Amino acid sequence: MRKLFEIKFDEWEKGLSYETTAFVGGIFQELKNCNPFEGRGALTPTRIKYEIGSDVIDKTRLIRVVLPIYATNSDQFYALADYYKLYLIDGVDVSDISAQIGTGSQVAIDALKWKGSFIYAMSGEVRSNSIPVSSANDALLLSVNPTSNLCIGPDRDLYVGVGNNVAYVKSSGTGVAVAAYLETNNTVRRLISDGRYLVWVASDEQTNSNGKNIITVAWWNMASSDFDQIYRFEGGTFGDANIIGTTIKIITSTGIWVTNMDNPPYLAVPFGGTLATSDIPDRFSKTMSTYKGNTMFWGNWNGKIYAYGNRIGRQADRLFQPYTVYSRIYAIDSNGTLLITSSGTAGAGSLYLEYTPLSLPASSVYANTAIANLAGFSLGRPFTFHSAKILLKNPIVSGDSVSLQILSSSSTKTILASTTKTNDTDSGERSLSFDHKEVGGGNDMEVFEDVSDVKITTNVPILSLTIYGKEADERSTYVKSSYV
């Protein structure tokens, strides 16, 4: 008997492979409902979502911005929705405070804190208010139609993208355009401060109909009439961008691009294997967040939350899916402890706590069902399956469930049929043994030399997985209806 494969310790942190059939950039073809940087050294399921404010929120207005605000304590957020709807999130409590801001039928764009004030952008204008918000302090700052997020520049002034230019608010006054500008076919989609420059990320997709959209990244020193550096690349549909440390990461329909002022953009994670075009963020919503250090989170059009980053600086960035949600993600943000998302469809919006240490009702604290499915790999010679072992972090108890399935030949043949262990089958055990189980019907592999799937489904933390086999005749790899 030989050990064919083992995964343990920090190998759970290696993230999604860029392909489903090989270990490229990661080792999993699926890694969801878990955060490999939480509960390190184990495959640890994330906590199940918990809806907040269902009795208060007007679900006919989409919530597009979630902002940590710290009005009176560290667990407070503002949630900004279309038609000037504003909610105060205080832990698990939500209250409607829309009466304290403006009115109208505009779409919510973005919000931030600036010079001790709450600044919010709607389609058509940017307004200011106090913290906490007060109707007596609500004021118009700019009459513009924002095309990007609000951003505080390195000069501590306020900027927002407007078409191929940016508008500004300074102590000396406001303006609808600065001296620098991009070509008229560009639209500024994201402004980023890197500590020295105001970085413009723009796209020409509104005017380019051939599908080969050009993304422009330009570094402006906030004084000159031109840019100190400009990079352009053919990136497809723009999703969003953020800065982690000194590196700007741009998500497009072709993948995740990485750049800084001294290095042109390069494709760090190509889409098309593990991720599809539909997995990019909605570029018209605030879906970016940094959470727990060096990791960038985004929500996509299909109700999934992805993350790309690492726990410790200078480690390799990893791609994973910590949450599967419900419907399209419109906003996601965190104060470092709470992670709050807004999800919905046209005419409906809801708020959810995705991760929280708060005391919640007992019915809300259950773990998600995590799925880890290894990408395909070759063994180099034929083997027969002997057994597999999964070591749990804690002894199995009532309500725990762990399943394992192993497939071969591009997922068409079974090495180990899906087998589930519970407290009924392995009461109080930490080490779970999986002996051979066939699926029958002529779909079982008796002898194999490649593995296309090793799928673990669990609601409890797992420390390790080990697969054992026996060497077989080098001359044959074959299918047999009955395993012997």
Describe the protein's architecture and organization.
The model has no long low-confidence stretch (mean pLDDT 89). The chain has strands spanning 2-8, 28-32, 50-52, 63-68, 76-81, 85-90, 93-96, 108-114, 117-122, 125-129, 139-142, 150-152, 158-162, 165-170, 173-175, 187-193, 198-203, 214-220, 229-234, 238-244, 247-252, 255-260, 263-270, 288-291, 294-299, 304-310, 318-324, 329-334, 339-345, 348-355, 370-374, 377-392, 401-408, 413-422, 431-435, 448-451, 453-458, 462-471. Strands 1, 32, 35, 36 and 38 form a five-stranded antiparallel β-sheet that branches. The protein has a five-stranded antiparallel β-sheet with strand order 2-31-37-33-34, with no helix packed on it. Strands 3-30-29-28 form a four-stranded antiparallel β-sheet, with no helix packed on it. It is mostly beta strands and 484 residues long. The protein folds into two domains: 2-44 and 370-471, Jelly Rolls (Sandwich); 50-364, Methylamine Dehydrogenase, Chain H, CATH 2.130.10. β22 (255-260) and β23 form a beta hairpin. The two termini are 16 Å apart. It is built from no helices and 38 strands.
